[in-house]
Amino acid sequence: MTPPKHILSAATIVLNDQNEILLIKGPRRGWEMPGGQVEEGESLKDAAIRETKEESGIDIEITKFCGVFQNVNDSICNTLFLATPIGGEPTTSAESLEVGYFPIETALEMITWKNFRERIEYCLNDKMHPFYIAF
Questions:
Q1: Which of 29, 65, 73, 121 is the most interior residue, by most CB within 10 Å?
Q2: CA distances from 117 to 40, 70, 83 (A)
Q3: Residue 30 in domain
Q4: In which domain, by residue range, is 22 found?
Q5: pLDDT per position as a tens digit, 52-98
């Protein structure tokens, strides 16, 4: 199978009733928001829900589309959504070594990979929606 020319992903910023954010600790990039590639025939929203469940064990409801980060050179479009948990239990997977909810400021300090912190900050700022960031 030929690899795709463009990669489309969907990620979620999941906030619980205590205004804590759901993070997963991936084996390669450390702490990040759940998300991953959209499969053929799948909507962005459905991909965000599926990836969050697969990586964290948490069932979610999408509450808002926030925007897009596009890596032009690598042909990657990352779509971002806000969501609330509606069920499930934090569970690790092959893609997540740890899973948990953290206060927003703590979560932002935990994230070290490239522009993941910036993505979360954009999603948490209603005045920025919808955003389109190309780099």
A1: 65
A2: 28, 15, 17
A3: yes
A4: 7-134
A5: 999 999 999 999 999 999 999 999 999 999 999 999 999 999 999 99
Q: Token match 């070290």: residue?
A: 112
Q: What's at 126, amino acid-wise?
A: D
Q: What is the pLDDT of residues 22-58, one digit of tens each?
A: 999 999 999 999 999 999 999 999 999 999 999 999 9
Residue 44 belongs to domain with CATH number = 3.90.79.10
pTM over cut 0.85: yes
